[in-house]
Amino acid sequence: MTTLKIKSLTKDFSGTAVLKGIDLTMNSGEFVSLLGPSGCGKTTLLRCIAGLEAPSTGRIEIGGQDVTDLPPEKRHLGMMFQSYALFPHMSVIENVRFGLRMAGDKPKAEQKALAVRALERVQMGHLADRSPAQLSGGQQQRVALARAIAFEPRVLLLDEPLSNLDARLREDMQIELKELHRTLGLTTVFVTHDQEEAMSLSDRIVLMNGGVVEQEGAPGELYGQPRTRFAADFIGAANVIPADRVGGSATVTGTDVRIPVAHVGADGTGCVVLRQEDLHLQTAVSDHAPVPVTILTHVYRGADLVYVAELAGQRVRVVRPRHEDVVPAGPAALGWRDDSALWIAD
Asked: 231: Cβ–Cβ under 8 A, 6 or more apart, which residues?
């Protein structure tokens, strides 16, 4: 079991700061997702951990050992990337055995036994003699994962490994990956731009933005207690509405619409955060739905419908179950679940 520590890590490319002082500790056996938009620095951070990029400053420790200046092959890490990088001229079993063979510290029989065990762990043992060209995308993904875990690494690094799969297969592989992590107990670092993927897999999410850590915590913490506008909008795509707070309520900017905000926060300018699923619509204003809005359109998603409404020039999204009556386009009224409005001060 291995702890991973990153201390004051920076990385510059041609004078451009990509990582701006990252401090993280990933506990032994923890599944941590590096989440954020393209260009936020998450893949660069993963490549620094792997030894594929040299940090400009800072340190990386694995299991108490400073590995900052060690080459990738000396770090004893399992790596799996988006492209899978399987060798087309090798069989499945030889692809999985490749890293063990390159290490050269185990006899051939033991290498093969470890490769077979890794394939069985990902339900691919029966296809050991096939070539990658004979496999589906999901099967190739499993082979790449088997190769990453075959030599029993200290830390497993995964760089958007599910992004090439279709929606249903990606969902199936999320379940299998979570079960595999539970079985192996490996410290795992998972890079993704998909917040739903990070929420479903992670013990902890590290949300990155512009080369820094915007917020980190358990999935429920980031979803329920975002600390910045960026975190609120990126995790769950909340409605972020500019407002001014005085005491226990906030007034939407440019209107007289007041929204109670129950949790502690500083008075002044900021924004109210309303999750789409915490809102409800009615055809007319009432105590339950006190704010007049205009329904612009709605989108059917199978399990639910997403409405787009206009509130004082702001577009607000509302999720309603599919079995509820459809609210037609035009005048309507908006309400929210008690104590659901979050406040983020500027």
From this structure: 207, 214, 215, 222
Using CA of residue 36, residue 39, residue 41, residue 43, what is the dihedral sign? positive
CA 18, 206, 54, 188 torsion: positive or negative?
negative
How far does CA 281 lie from the centroid of its chain? 30
Closest listed residue to residue 240, CA positions, set 329, 334, 345: 345
Is residue 46's pLDDT more than 70?
yes
Structural domains in the chain, CATH included, are 4-224 (3.40.50.300), 239-345 (2.40.50.140)
Are 267 and 343 in contact, with CB atoms under 8 Å apart? no
Could you give the CA distance from residue 340 to residue 25 in angstroms, rounded to a whole number? 32
Angstrom CA distances, 343 to 167, 248, 317, stand at 34, 10, 18
| 61 class by beta-carbon count within 10 Å (0-12 exposed, 13-18 middle, 19+ buried) | middle
CA distances from 216 to 8, 195, 203, 205 (A): 16, 13, 11, 6
Decide which of 338 and 264 is more confident.
338
Question: Measuring CA to CA, how many Å separate 26 from each of 31, 59, 90?
Answer: 8, 14, 35
User: What's the CA gap between 88 and 84, in Å, rounded?
Assistant: 11
Please tell me what DSSP assigns to residue 263.
Answer: S
Residue 113: closest CA among 122, 123, 103, 125: 125
Token pair, residue 143, equals 């082979």
| Two structure tokens written together for 116 | 């077979």
Rg (CA), the chain: 24
Cα dihedral 310, 315, 319, 323, rounded to 10, equals: 30
Token digits of residue 262: 């129950």
pLDDT in tens, 113-161: 999 999 998 889 999 999 999 998 888 888 999 999 988 888 999 998 8
Among 184, 177, 80, 95, CA closest to 135: 95
Helix, strand, coil fractions of the chain, as percent rounded to 5:
30, 35, 35
